Amino acid sequence: MTYEEFIQTLNKAYRDNPELVKLVQDIADARTTATFAQAQAYAIKLGEVLGQTISATGVLSEEEMIYTAEYVSKLLKPALLDAYELSTEAAMMVQDQINASYGLGLQAVKPDPDMDRINNLITEVFNKGYEAHKQAINEQITNLTQSAVDKTITTNGKFLEHSGVTVKYTRIADSGACKWCRSLVGTYETYQAPDGFFGHHTNCQCIIKLEGMKPTGKVNYWTKVYDKAVQEGRIKEALDE
């Protein structure tokens, strides 16, 4: 299968998957009741479809072990980036609807894709071989698309805080959540949240819920603290993280 044929097959898999189509339509139809859980469900399914397509096409099968690093990169980078972007857009749809529900005339901010993570995954596929580690790699692909939703949530939370809107989030643990995930359960404002609060490890089904937003008309205390740290060079500016 050529690179062009693979991309065509992948695009068809996205368009023809009824669950993916429905998940996007449900977000659009939800209007002011859309949730990040819907975006996460879409991202998870999208990652699964991408992994299944790679497996089904055999483009990285044992018979193709002569492939080069350049071949793996050319094959996977556009596919991984596309899935990341689609997951980001789903989360942005939710954010736009949430903003509108609070009467905010602010559009969702689009974060840059995590190219380091994408490139590291490509390197791992080349170094380890896909077939021998198929399940683990496919799980990482799904976790990558999940991370796009996570990054969209945090980027927009910081943007809103800088715009004078206090934002609260609740993390809800999945029934089979690990000890680490259970330790993160709770409700926090953007800058009060503990490290890892917005993130997901592989096979993590925890939910991030926007608990509420309160326009204050001014930058709040936590944002001032954050801005001071930025000015002092201790941390990067929110949208560049």
Q: Fraction of residues in helices?
A: 55-70%
Bin the strand percentage: 5-15%
Mean pLDDT: 87
Uncertain residue segments: none
Ends apart, CA distance between termini = 38 Å
Strand arrangement, largest sheet?
A: 2-1-3
Overall 3D geometry? globular
Please tally the helical runs, counting DSSP H or I stretches of 4 or more residues: 8
Biggest sheet features: 3 strands, antiparallel
Q: Which structural category do the helix and sheet elements fall into?
A: mainly alpha
Number of DSSP strand runs: 3
SSE string:
HHHHHHEHEEH
Give the tally of structural domains: 1
Q: Round the Cα radius of gyration to an integer and report it.
A: 19 Å
Summarize the structure.
With 241 residues, the protein is mainly alpha-helical. The chain is built from eight helices and three strands, in the order ααααααβαββα. It has one domain (3-240).
Protein model, in words:
The chain has 241 residues and is mainly alpha-helical. The radius of gyration is 19 Å and the shape is globular. The protein starts with a helix and ends in a 10-residue tail after the last helix. It has helices at 3-16, 18-30, 36-57, 69-101, 115-128, 134-162, 179-183, 221-231; strands at 165-172, 186-189, 207-215. The protein has one domain (3-240). The longest helix has 33 residues, at 69-101. A 3-stranded antiparallel β-sheet has the order 2-1-3. The mean pLDDT is 87. The protein contains 8 helices and 3 strands.
